């Protein structure tokens, strides 16, 4: 048995002062939900799902209820999960109507397929009894205040007391993109990755550039060779060279947590075995890091 850790994020973005308390409150509730699962001996996969479900229900985050609209005013969501013990991946892309895309991704995790999209993903969600959004939740609930503010995918990484890692993401994508556009968030090696021999990582940011730089893969490879903070920093430098913004949370194989970003804010929360309260960071000013 080892100690458990969960590290979550609510997006690499700009957080307006009036949105700070909602971000803090959403992170606090979400990280505690994941921590409760781990403290009860639950798996890293279950903890990541539990934390992300809370953020999918919180309108301050661009996932589930808070998902931003595409160019046609519709909502298409993406989510991904990875189990570091088995390297199983489950993801959904361009999925409409579902309240908790991450839970559909977890269902895919149990299957041979790794990624289901669009109508196929919705049919699978219905087949597995996924809860649909009620009528009100199907309309976009939040206005994006700036282009930067749109990068607020949610994500989580966890290490359970069995020594297993997991990573997950959930997003409404980027506001105003083409119908059917899919970013990094449901793609393993781009928006997320977990491998018990290396650790786990989850990202937020400009999805096309994160995919072009296979950023999760870059970070996870470095976790095998260097400490978690430099592994994140030098990978984000690659993203910055493309003029893009992002943020990453990661755990190395010993469970050491780290995060980094080149966006103005990155909403992050951490809990470890024995913690009564989470540590929460929203901006650079607050960052001494874990
Ligand atoms: N990475 C997400 C995407 O491009 C956006 C975000 O992080 O908010 O779909």
What does the secondary structure layout of this molecule look like, with pairings?
Layout: E1 5-13, H1 20-39, H2 44-57, E2 77-83, E3 88-95, H3 101-109, E4 115-117, H4 118-127, E5 154-159, E6 165-171, E7 192-195, E8 199-205, H5 207-212, H6 215-223, H7 228-241, E9 246-252, E10 257-261, E11 265-272, E12 279-283
Parallel strand pairs: 3-4
Antiparallel strand pairs: 1-5, 1-11, 2-3, 2-6, 5-6, 7-8, 8-9, 9-10, 11-12
Helix pairs in contact: 1-2, 2-3, 6-7
The chain binds aspartic acid (ASP).
Q: What structural class is derived from the secondary structure elements?
A: alpha+beta
Helix content, binned percent: 25-40%
**What topology, given as strand order, has the largest sheet?**
4-3-2-6-5-1-11-12
Q: How would you sum up the major sheet?
A: 8 strands, mixed
CATH level-two architecture? 4-Layer Sandwich
The CATH topology is given as Glutamine Phosphoribosylpyrophosphate, subunit 1, domain 1
Overall mean pLDDT stands at 92
* Overall body shape: globular
Which CATH class? Alpha Beta
Query: What's the Cα radius of gyration?
Result: 17 Å
Report low-confidence residues grouped into runs of 5 or more: 144-149
- Beginning-to-end CA distance, first to last residue: 22 Å
**Contiguous helical run count:** 7
Q: What pattern of helices and strands is seen along the backbone? A: EHHEEHEHEEEEHHHEEEE
- Say how many strands there are: 12
Number of domains: 1
Structure ligands: aspartic acid
């Amino acid at each position: 048995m080892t100690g458990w850790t969960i590290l979550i994020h609510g997006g690499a973005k700009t957080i307006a002062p009036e949105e700070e308390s909602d971000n803090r409150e959403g992170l606090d509730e979400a990280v505690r939900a994941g921590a409760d699962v781990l403290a009860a001996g639950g798996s890293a996969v279950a903890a990541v799902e539990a934390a992300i479900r809370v953020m999918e229900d919180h309108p301050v985050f661009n996932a589930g209820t808070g998902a931003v609209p595409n160019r046609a005013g519709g909502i298409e969501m993406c989510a991904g999960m990875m189990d570091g013990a088995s390297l199983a991946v489950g993801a959904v892309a361009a999925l409409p109507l579902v309240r908790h895309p991450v839970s559909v991704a977890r269902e895919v995790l149990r299957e041979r397929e790794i990624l289901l999209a669009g109508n196929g993903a919705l049919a699978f969600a219905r087949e597995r009894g996924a809860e649909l959004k009620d009528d009100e939740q199907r309309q976009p609930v939040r206005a994006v205040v700036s282009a930067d503010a749109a990068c607020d995918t949610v994500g989580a990484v966890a290490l359970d007391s069995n020594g297993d890692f997991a990573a997950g993401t959930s997003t409404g994508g980027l506001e105003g993109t083409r119908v059917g556009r899919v970013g990094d968030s449901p793609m393993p090696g781009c928006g997320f990755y977990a491998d018990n021999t290396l650790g786990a990582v989850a990202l937020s940011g400009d999805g096309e550039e994160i995919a072009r730089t296979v950023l999760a893969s870059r970070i996870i490879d470095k976790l095998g060779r260097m400490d978690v903070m430099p592994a994140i920093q030098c990978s984000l430098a690659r993203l910055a060279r493309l003029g893009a913004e992002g943020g990453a949370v990661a755990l190395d194989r010993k469970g050491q947590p780290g995060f980094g970003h080149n966006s103005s804010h990155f909403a992050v929360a951490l809990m470890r075995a024995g913690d009564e309260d989470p540590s929460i960071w929203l901006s650079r000013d607050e960052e001494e890091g874990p």
